[in-house]
Design a protein that fits this description.
The protein is α/β, with parallel strands linked by helices. It is built from 29 helices and eight strands.
């Protein structure tokens, strides 16, 4: 983690914000800290945890944990949140609950009660609950739990002042309930064997009875005899039930949740639903959802692909950098620095300013910036979970579930960013498959724009062949990977929030934070990639690589020798490789068959060097090397096969 994040985790006073996904935790975090932060991985994991100092108390650190459905971990996200409660010295917890979906939220509340941690319950989204005719008696809930219950509408800042005032007075809940005699007796036996911890021994005993495998590292501190004794108790209690203890314990908690809900919740029947509710219903309809999906994808493409990748890139690259910044930089560098190698390093063909900063700030930033805005709108409106539902059946053939659509869609904005968001998938197998598919055949919006421009002058048949070749390849590779890779896929369970009007402030805050991430995390990788190319160039290795690759380009793909450099540059940025092919085609050096073969191959080509570094960071060096070793020859095999098929069948494009 960065130094700032480490300082927050080391601070003497700190609280954690926990809750289910899509309940407004990150908005609450932003309001409490004065900013929305997307920061580093929690130590020892690949899960992002946001941290910051409270705006109302600079000595108080706040940790925004990943969304969870249970404190008995079923995913890496849930394990990180549970471990924060188990290992961090917290002064309190703020649990954010969706007021219209108390079943999910109060299940976690009961586990917090058992842990003995002081907490405040934040009933968020009360406006949406009331719009659905759901009313919650927060005062009665306070009486039952014995902790402060604050009603908030985070998107409009309602109730935040009361929440801030309640945090220093967070209390342990006095609420308790009993399980069956067998479970209570087993828990009592285990309690006598456990050392003191930051959460109650009773809570730990129930986790162990539930068969929590993620506690094994914690149990390693105990002697072998104690661990064996705990296992014996678990087996003895399990023998009393035909169903897994985890199921029995969770069922008991859910029954208690229902008892509480009957005391605090009332509903009113409404005569009609709003337009937004109807839209939300139709957006997941097997038939009606398709035109809505098409409309969303079309407007996203227009905003990102046309406005971002076209208008904004033309302005920033063509005007700001090419007419002002780069000429001025060359003039200053050549005037102040007499050494040619240093001049080339800064403003040459592979210069840090003329290539790395031009690519990352003038070409990629406008594209990812507009994509972040579009993504924020879809996120804040509640449409993204519905999109996941729509494509779940299709993604099952790839060994994935509907949640995988989120990084795939993000990949059309920036594959590098999308690779990072693959962390949200529950299993290692799913994360590797999505990373592979992103690297193999998902063109970022910049490359997509260039490719469509290249194919735009050809027939519709050429466009269809390109789309079918890439999509078929992705499905074949995804299907085979799902069958050959070990591991299980995670069941698709996703809560559907209501469709709502996006809030401009939320979108702007999230966009700014994501752009800040891009500038801190991605831009340095562009600089590093440029330095690699610069080094290869001055050593004369770029020319050697071009010479070695020419037979492959000319012989197998049937392309002109000039295309070799385009593929080489494509390793730095696939869109620049596509742009090189565009220039060659514009010069009349390729026929229509060569154009189609070249764009299919460059689409399936090795990902840009920035994404390669991110794959190494996220999946490890061994996995990254394996992916490159597969993708590189596979792209040329597909391109070569397509070249042979089109010419043998004498397809006229």
């Amino acid at each position: 983690m960065h130094q700032h994040e480490k300082e927050v985790l080391r601070t003497k006073k700190k609280i954690a914000i926990i809750g289910n996904p899509n309940v407004g935790k990150s908005v609450i975090f932003g309001l409490l800290t004065g900013k929305y932060v997307m920061v580093s991985n929690y130590p020892g994991t690949t899960v992002e945890v946001s941290v910051g100092h409270a705006s109302f108390d600079k000595e108080l650190g706040i940790i925004d944990t990943p969304g969870i459905n249970n404190l008995l971990p079923m995913s890496e996200d849930e394990k990180v949140t549970r471990d924060i409660l188990l290992t961090e010295d917290l002064n309190g917890v703020v649990q954010v609950v969706d007021a219209k979906n108390l079943n999910r939220g109060l299940l976690i509340t009961l586990q917090l009660c058992e842990m003995g941690l002081p907490f405040v319950l934040d009933l968020n989204m009360g406006d949406e609950a009331r719009s659905r005719g759901v009313y919650v008696d927060s005062k009665r809930l306070e009486e039952i739990l014995g902790v402060d219950v604050i009603e908030t509408v985070a998107t409009s800042r309602k109730g935040i002042r009361k929440l801030v005032k309640s945090i220093p007075d967070a209390k342990e809940s006095r609420f308790s309930f009993r399980y069956s005699d067998e479970i209570e007796d087993g828990a009592a036996e285990i309690i006598t064997l456990l050392p003191d911890a930051r959460i109650s021994k009773r809570s730990l005993a129930l986790m162990l009875l539930s068969g929590d495998e993620s506690l094994k590292p914690w149990l390693d501190a105990l002697d072998e005899g104690t661990v064996n004794k705990i296992d014996e108790i678990h087996h003895k209690v399990q023998a009393s039930y035909s169903q897994p203890l985890n199921y029995v314990i969770t069922k008991t908690r859910l029954e208690e949740v229902q008892k509480i809900i009957r005391q605090i919740e009332s509903t009113e029947k409404r005569e009609s639903s709003s337009v937004l509710e109807s839209l939300g219903t139709w957006s997941v309809h097997p038939v009606g959802g398709i035109p809505i999906l098409m409309a969303v994808l079309f407007f996203t493409y227009v905003f990102v692909g046309v406005f971002g990748a076209g208008t904004l890139v033309d302005f920033f690259e063509g005007v700001v950098f090419n007419e002002y910044i780069n000429p001025a930089s060359k003039s200053i560098v050549e005037h102040l620095i007499p050494y040619k190698i240093v001049q080339d390093f800064l403003v040459g063909d592979y210069g840090v300013i003329t290539m790395a900063l031009t690519y990352s700030l003038a070409i990629i930033l406008p594209i990812v910036g507009t994509f972040f805005i579009a993504f924020g709108i879809l996120e804040d409106s509640g449409y993204l979970p519905r999109l996941a539902v729509m494509v779940n059946r299709v993604f099952k053939t790839l060994g994935l579930n509907g949640k995988a659509v989120l990084p795939i869609i993000l990949g059309f904005g920036c594959v590098t960013m999308a690779t990072l968001t693959a962390r949200t998938l529950e299993t290692k197998k799913e994360r590797i498959i999505v990373t592979l598919l992103l690297a193999l055949g998902i063109p970022c919006s910049a490359q997509l724009g260039v490719t469509l421009g290249l194919l735009g002058g050809l027939s519709v048949k050429a466009l269809v062949i390109w789309i079918c070749s890439v999509v078929a390849t992705l499905f074949v590779v995804g299907y085979l990977a799902s069958k050959l890779m070990p591991g299980e896929s995670f069941d698709f369970i996703m809560e559907l929030p209501p469709i709502r009007m996006p809030h401009l402030s939320n979108i702007l805050v999230k966009t700014v934070s994501r752009v800040e991430w891009y500038l801190k995390e991605a831009v340095p990788l562009f600089i590093l990639g440029t330095i690699v190319l610069f080094t290869l160039d001055i050593m004369g290795l770029l020319t050697s690589i071009e010479t070695l690759a020419s037979p492959l380009i000319v012989g197998l793909l049937g392309l002109p020798v000039e295309a070799t450099q385009a593929f080489l540059i494509g390793f730095l940025r696939r869109d620049y490789g596509a742009a090189g092919l565009f220039a060659i085609a514009s010069a009349g050096l390729m026929d229509t068959t060569q154009i189609v073969v070249s764009v299919v191959t460059i689409t399936l080509f090795v990902p840009c060097i920035a994404n390669l570094f991110i794959i190494i960071k996220e999946r490890g060096l061994k996995t990254a090397v394996g992916m490159v070793a597969f993708i590189f020859p596979f792209a040329f095999i597909v391109g070569g096969f397509l070249n042979f098929a089109l010419r043998y069948l004498e397809v006229i494009l």
